[in-house]
Amino acid sequence: MPKPATELMQEILFSVFLDSVDALKRASNGLPNQLVRDLNAIHRNTTFADLPKDVQDAIVTNVRAAFTKLLKEGYSVGPTSAVRPAQPAAPHGPGARRGPARGRPGGEGPRRPPSGDGPRRPPSGDGPRRPPRDPKKPRG
Questions:
Q1: pTM given for the model
Q2: What is the separation, in whole angstroms, between the first and last Cα of the chain?
Q3: What is the DSSP string of 3-53?
Q4: Nearest to 27 by CA among 35, 15, 17
Q5: What is the C-alpha separation between 118 and 140, in angstroms, rounded?
Q6: pLDDT of 135
Q7: Which of 4-13, 53-62, 71-80, 120-129 has the least mean pLDDT?
Q8: Which residues lie closer than 8 Å to 34 by C-beta, 6 or more apart?
Q9: How far is CA 139 from CA 59, 111, 128, 132, 133, in A?
């Protein structure tokens, strides 16, 4: 039975994290100050190219290993263009093969165009109506 995808991804990410920390230690050549500088240089906007060479190599190796592990566990890995979305099941039973609707429901002939010249407005509601404003009376 294959592992659940969540569990597998947690294993992969944890392994990548530990390998990257080891690579940072190797890149500092055992110098604690250099290790602290390398750690402080990593932030949210750090790009792959900004990382030390040892960390870059560890990430590349771990990504390849992650894809291999996913394939061994039975998950398919490929570009989105290669993966076809599942087709919905065709409906069965009476009325399942109806064509496009023609005409009005319960009637024959084409639909009538909407009446009126301008755009449709929402209904005004059931609230009380204001009396029209007297143009001679000043506002305020």
A1: 0.51
A2: 79
A3: PPHHHHHHHHHHHHHHHHHHHHHHHTTT-HHHHHHHHHH--TT--GGGS-H
A4: 35
A5: 33
A6: 76
A7: 120-129
A8: 27, 28
A9: 73, 48, 21, 13, 9
In tens, the pLDDT along 39-85 reads: 999 999 999 999 989 999 999 999 999 989 888 888 887 777 765 66
Name the one residue in this structure whose structure tokens are 């250099």: 34
CA angle 25, 29, 34 (to 5 degrees): 75
What Cα–Cα distance (Å) separates residue 57 from each residue in 20, 26, 48, 62?
9, 12, 10, 9
Residue at 135: amino acid letter: P
